[in-house]
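**Folding the chain**
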Amino acid sequence: MRQFDVFVFDENYDEAQGKLPQPPFTDPELGWFYTNDWNRHLDEIEGEWVVFAHPSIKIDRNFLNNVAEVTDGFPMVDAFAPRIRTDKGNFLGGYLLKPASKGSGFVEIDENAPLRYVAAPHPYLGIFSRRIIQRTGGFDTTLPESARLADFTLRMMHAGGKMFSVPYLVAQATGDEAEAVTGNDCKENAHNLAGMRAGMRDLKSIAIILSKAFGAEASVPFALHHPSVIPTLLRNHKQRKEKRKAATLLSKLKADFLKEVISH
């Protein structure tokens, strides 16, 4: 068994044409997968821990050494949400759930937040144990790429998994993409907080994720605050209900833990 497998997801990668980049380094304890198909290679996982990353995130020896220390230090945790340091020096972290009384949805943790559990990682980077991936299943590829890690993490919680945010586990963004999608310009900030800063690109994706994970209890308050998503929630309701049933039928998510990943 390898220590790590690294999946780098990019819609521009074309495995059929062999147009894949070379790993920055190789190691017997490390497996690399460059792909545009989020589910294709999941059954090939051999690493004890799996890093899912956007190509703009620098995955180097130093980062993986830090991951090894953190995973050894928190053996009861199933997943981690690293911080991402942008070229502008900002730190982007994981996300908490917004309470139904405030309209549901997601809210980004403060960049100075302490050790804590979170409900989702930044959409560009998440780390999961092989064990919890096997229990959770594959990614929902009907969702935009930027929403898939958030959806996967909520389903992982129903499978009994917990995601931890560790302030000193930090990855470097190699370009300005991670910064751009979080929108630090005041003009765009409101849109991006509802979109990429919440782990997805648009309000419709948030509505679908909430509906799948928590049903009407979360999706209705969100829809009341964002009426534009109501048609989305009415469409494909039967299929979404089946997905929710599959994820939550034997849910191991406890109310006490859910409170830990809800913002106050």
Notes: The domain at 4-260 is CATH 3.90.550 (Spore Coat Polysaccharide Biosynthesis Protein SpsA; Chain A). The radius of gyration is 18 Å.
